[in-house]
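**Fold in tokens:**
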Amino acid sequence: MKVVVAHNRYREAQPSGENTMVDLEIAQLTGAGVDVLPFLRSSDEIPAMPKSAKVLLPISPIYAPQAQQDLSRLIETERPDVLHLHNPYPLLSPWVVRTAHRHGVPVVQTVHNYRQVCSSGLYFRDGHICHDCRGRALGVPAIVHRCYRGSRAQSALMATTLAVHRPTWRSVDRFIALTSAVADHLREYGIPDDRIVIKPNAIPDPGEPAPLGDGFLFFGRLSPEKGLDLLLQAWRQHPDGSLGPLRIAGDGELRPLAEAAARERTDVEYLGPLDRAGVWAAVRAAAVVVAVPTWHDVLPTVVIEALAAGRPVLGTALGGVPYLIGMDHPPTAAGWVVPAEATSLAAALPTARAAAPALAPLARTRYLATFRPEVVTTQLLDTYKSLAG
């Protein structure tokens, strides 16, 4: 089977879980015997582009002519069975869907964000969840609030792109929703159930879990929407030392908040930014991993990493977190979810600490059944086969 994997890579200076997952998926497909034809562009290419190409950049989210020519040549030469699209912006444009269909190639798209509707892709603005553009023919609120790259002009372009390509997105043959929350988003957008497959990302198996550690771990980007401030508000409702240690790992604009908490309490430790080995060591040292986004985080990889290591997760009931933990089957759920507010989170902390040993085996079982590469790759291959002629 031949599959074109199309993706506009985000800038390397801007760490991207989506780039990482596309690379992993290409490797997993290749390992499964698929002939993968990468059709990749990178936003890092933009500064080195000739002036003639840069002139066309403002319209490229709507129609990127060079990408369409290159894709047509690739399809005519290789005759792929399927095109699998990830991020099309800005150098591919959703027009690649139309180009593939013109050549009789079915299209699968993995939905990594909410950009069918939301110009920023996040459903999050000015520190709060925002659905102002839902149901609108044109996302005027996105323009007013400069939701795309802080620019009214670029927000107008993206809102126009989303309006123009509404029929394009609705023509995609199969959408891969990373969680049930993304599937709900697609249904609201008008996509029928029979064109939606729920298939999460996979991460490599780190091996059998180490014995359960102690306390709680929060790791990832230290930005407001990830919920560090919410966690610290909840933590302060308990006496110093009563819950065991809280370790915080990562970097970002809220780093001073983590450092201040570590200074004021003996049970908070800021580990700083960690490499992959450091992250796994921190996970093994914990009993519970905390993932408390205050926005509809599509698929926080920290949750899958915790489950792979046999650590239950305490999370907020937003975005992909409930699905990842397994809240659709509560008796076998590998953690707990609470509303994104401090009182509820504070009440859940002692419960999570006490119940962690009982839920740790469920966490590993959830990973093996749902997020192991072999399981996820089989799902993806089945999706391709259902469309290939």
Q: What stands out?
A: The radius of gyration is 22 Å.
